[in-house]
Amino acid sequence: MTLTRKTTPSPSYTSLPQNPGKESVELSHLDSTTSSPPAYDQVVPSTTFNPTTHIQIETQGKSWLSLPLPPRPVPIPVFTLNHPDESTFTNNPSFTCYRPERSSGSCYLSTNPAASVDQQVPVTSTTTYRFGPNRPPLIRMFPSGTAIPQPALQNLLYSQDNEASTTVPTAWDAFTIDSLGIFTRSIEFTSPRLKAKFQWRYASRGERKASGADSLLVLERVCGGEEVRTVVANFIRNDKHRTSGSSASSAGNGGRLMVDLRELLSLASKDGEDGARGNEKGAVDEANHLALVMVVTTCLVMLKREVDRRRAQQIAIMAGAGT
Q: Could you tell me which residues belong to the region Disordered (predicted)?
């Protein structure tokens, strides 16, 4: 008796599946659509920064080949440029920073490049440096046209108290400048009037490369628990924009400050919703003025911190050489 085995032919590997729709869906899940991470030297901008105002701050700063003494109290002019590529400043400065005493960092920002008239000083902001731990610099901002008598201004600059004298006009806004830590040069401040937090920081190597800058400081608005950041201003120093006579190794020297006022003006407009609306154009001009004052004043604080850091380095070098 012969036994025969019945075999079933094996399926062809080229045949289509019974349910091609289902199969294609399953394969689509296996196919990754995630793009590969950028190369380490690739610049990936976080947000688009489109400045609306260009400002030039003119100060020599402090070079390495100098004694570790406080810089002379030379006024620092601040020019608003009509064109981004403008390199000559023949017009009067929009602001001038005055530091009355060489031994103190306290200073004030004025719209008048000349001295006071009849002992009344036009002041847009003051920065008071106070002695002792946990006493950060205090900034006060004033509306345009504010005039402060000389004695009251001196008391405001060198007083160690938070409260201003009764003879001083009420500040539009006041806040302290706080360091973010021992191992960082970044600072933070919160504007009670604008109800917003801001941070100045030094840019990364990629950001400097993208901007063509030797040194780049970035001012960002920080909001939300996720710390969503919006760039408000950039301060660039390179061969084109740094103050003439200073170098890339200078500390606290001047450069080009580029500001996007749209974010700040939106905050200022929200603050003024409950105020008078009689002069809408005047309100916009005032908001524009105060936004610039805040950016310029806090940028000057960053430059002053650079000078202080350079002096500390010089003292350390001299102390090491003497041992």
A: 1-47
In a domain, 34, yes or no: no
pLDDT level of residue 41 (50, 70, 90 thresholds)? very low
Q: Is residue 16 part of a domain?
A: no
In a domain, 288, yes or no: yes
Sign of CA dihedral 126, 127, 129, 130: positive
Is 203 a domain residue? yes
Please name the helix (run of DSSP H) or strand (run of DSSP E) that holds residue 198, with its range, or none: strand 196-202
Structural contact between residues 122 and 112, judged by C-beta atoms closer than 8 angstroms: yes
112 three-state secondary structure: coil
CA-wise closest residue to 264 among 220, 308, 300: 220
Question: Exposed (0-12), middle (13-18) or buried (19+): which is 275, by Cβ within 10 Å?
Answer: exposed
Please say if the pLDDT value at position 230 is more than 70.
yes
Sign (positive or negative) of CA dihedral 190, 194, 200, 206: positive
pLDDT tens, residue by residue, 235-249: 999 999 999 999 999
Which domain covers residue 264, as residue numbers?
Answer: 53-322
Dump pLDDT digits (tens) for 66-108.
999 999 999 999 999 987 777 777 678 999 999 999 999 999 9
Which residues have a Cβ under 8 Å from the Cβ of 26 and sit 6 or more positions away? Answer: none
| Cα–Cα distance list, 92 to 79, 112, 142, 155, 246 (Å) | 7, 9, 21, 29, 22
Q: CA–CA separation, 105 vs 309, rounded Å?
A: 13
Task: State the total domains in the chain.
Answer: 1
| CA 69 – CA 26 distance, rounded (Å) | 72
Separation between Cα atoms, residue 222 and residue 227, nearest integer Å:
5
Nearest to 110 by CA among 96, 120, 90, 99: 96
